[in-house]
Amino acid sequence: xxxxxxxxxxxxxxxxxxxxxxxxxxxxxxxxxxxxxxxxxxxxxxxxxxxxxxxxxxxxxxxxxxxxxxxxxxxxxxxxxxxxxxxxxxxxxxxxxxxxxxxxxxxxxxxxxxxxxxxxxxxxxxxxxxxxxxxxxxxxxxxxxxxxxxxxxxxxxxxxxxxxxxxxxxxxxxxxxxxxxxxxxxxxxxxxxxxxxxxxxxxxxxxxxxxxxxxxxxxxxxxxxxxxxxxxxxx
Length: 235
Ligand SMILES: C[S@@+](CC[C@H](N)C(=O)[O-])C[C@H]1O[C@@H](n2cnc3c(N)ncnc32)[C@H](O)[C@@H]1O
Description:
The protein is an alpha/beta fold.
């Protein structure tokens, strides 16, 4: 059972993989995700890639232990460089949002209609969303979850070639359509995240007000986030 072997965060990424013939896990580290994808038959083959030799050796040992060396290829590479010949779907998890955007930007082969990626940023998620929407990628699904006291977002992304319009609030916490019908776990995780954002924003607003600096943008965001929090708490 993959859900028993993966962290909640990686299991959320696992669930969003569509199951391309060859799924590349960029920055694989331990290799757990490609192992589970192949082991449970969601992907017939996979690439476990990393920029650093040490994590790749960790992945190699885990893959060999599972007897999956013929189905999971190891690649020592920066981002998706050199993977265009094989990778039909990408997972990039556990990195900063700006690094993820940079890896995708350099991977020209992801700009093919319908190309699918699962992206799980640890930081700078608003910046990643903005970059994707500005550059022809559509966020088709977004999962919110809590894992060991941390809030995570996992994005399912398809290339369409068309940019997407968005508001500041969309960039901050994702589009409304992804919040419709959230399960209890998702609603709880998002509510906790919004409360933290409101706390930070409140400090910022007070600091700026004291210094006589305009804080209209922060105040508008505060109101928008408060309204979403109320609706999450009502449901
Ligand atoms: C925190 S680990 C995440 C491991 C796993 N993907 C996860 O989500 O649990 C980040 C990994 O990304 C690798 N990494 C960092 N920059 C990279 C890049 N430009 N290309 C490929 N791998 C990279 C690191 O070596 C490290 O193994």
